[in-house]
Amino acid sequence: MSDLLLSLALILVKLGLIFGVILGMAAYLVLAERKILGRMQLRHGPNRLGPFGLIQPMADVIKLITKEDFMPDQADKWLFLFAPGLTALTALLSFVVVPFAPPLTIFGRELPMVVCDLNIGLLYFLGISSLGVYGVVIGGWASNSKYSLLGAMRSIGQLLSYELAMGLALIPVVLSAKSFSLTDVVMSQADWPNLLKHPVAFLIFLVSIAAESKRTPFDMPEAENEIVGGFHTEYSGMRFGLFFVGEYINLVIIGSMLTVLFLGGWHGPLLPPIVWFAIKVLFVAFCFIWARGTMPRLRYDQLLHLGWKVLIPLALLNLLVTAAVLLAIG
Amino acid sequence: MLDNYLPIFTLILIAVCFAIGSTVFSGLIGQKKPSEVKLAPYECGMPLVGTARERFSVKFYIIAMLFIVFDIEVVFMYPWAVMFKRLGMFGFVEMGVFILILLVGYIYVWKKGALEWE
Amino acid sequence: METIFFYIIALVALGSGLIVVLCKSPVNSALGLVNTFFCLAVFYVMLYAPFMAAVQIMVYAGAIMVLILFVIMLLNLGTEARKRYTHGVVWAALASLLSLVTFLVFIKKGQITGAAGDITKDVVMSVGHTELIGKTMFTEFLLPFEIASILLLVAIVGAVVLAKKEV
Fold first, then answer.
1. Choosing among A137, A171, A321, which should be mutated to test the B contact, i.e. which has the most B CBs within 10 A?
2. Model-level pTM?
3. A73-80 average pLDDT score
4. Residue A219 sits in which domain range?
């Protein structure tokens, strides 16, 4: 019984830590994005609250909470209330399988540095990311506004098109790790990161995960200057805040998944593993913000063309070639 | 088996509490001044035209249907990828045939123009 | 502990099943169905079949239900579906009730037994569920696997023919 209580306490501590760290990271990524974009456009970005604007995220939270939270009178009431929470939930759920450091031994107990080391971790990630579409679609449809509906439709088409390429790009990774467990995936990269072993799969995964989380070259579903935010046009106050938080948690997830699957996870010289992990995640997040400052948005036909006619055949070819090479070298 | 998944259920509970708590709290302390114009769907300030419950292009459906088929194909590949080393050449040829048959379908879809978005 | 958990999830599954049947709005019904699938995935996990759980979520909740939701939302079924009540519904209800009773009788008779055969819980635990599926599917069930690809091919052709008028 005490063993059960101990493991339950451990779970709660881990979850609490991760919950805090992720929400904090999401809040500060918002600031980082505004700062970096500001600098790229020769502006300062937020700089009034605290040194370098460091208190800005708290101010944003207070603003969002005290704003009026209203619902359009033609909206589908329950679904409208339900959608933002669902988005935040699906974004948070992906993180439980991410291993951020090698297993630690405390008091003679082996303590894996991951919330739950599932032996189907990779599939779990894919499954949860495919559920991410629901929050967006329900929110867009329930708002009963044309912009929201357009955003929801675009996002379904986009998510479905890129999920295939993403799934196919992960198969070479599984081939060399021989397991779906993300800890095993990181372990298999002790010598070389998957980035060098499977460069094509990396590129495909990078593009598709950017499209999946609607980051900039692929932000058709929210395109501020044509459909004014897409699925969240009608949302205000904390409900908008939940969509927003979900989006930035997604940015953390992108960083972590790219790190775990392709950049060698916690492996690195000199510094402690967890520092390497953080550096890699933040670097990926920075690159995505950088892309937002640099790249124009794709048109919808270009987007589907890229997904179905370029990435999927490329991923299939890459899969066969990788398998053949692995077979040849034994 | 279930023990491994316990954190997920706990996290679902925490996240649901967080989502409900933050929105309810915001609803309590936020201001409430609804007006007819404010509650109307946003349309850049113009009077509303038509409804948002419109039918959409069949293109979207075909994407969704093709997605299901190819998704099932990818699902078949996962157990194969895990067992690849142990299946060896035999498994490779097997999967080659599988992909080849689906490639025929893919080329058919492409040639029929189902992937065009004009 | 596990039994209590099972009953909680079973209740949730039944509740969402009832939502599917009883809800007036088709969108809510579809979401109830998604939740039922989610509960089914939990049951798969409890049966030591995590791969099936993942596939259940990926394929049923993540792909098929998205299509159904898509169709409901875009065809604007909300208002029309309610009017189309026919006597066919009664027959369908009777048929499903009959099959449920037959099923229950079979379970009662014990013809659907528990773990029998070589693959027991311990084997699944030691070898791994995915590995077992992979091994069986790619050696013993080679032909069905290849036939599945032809079935999928047919499905692709069907989808294109249905959606494109000029074919």
1. A171
2. 0.85
3. 76
4. 76-329
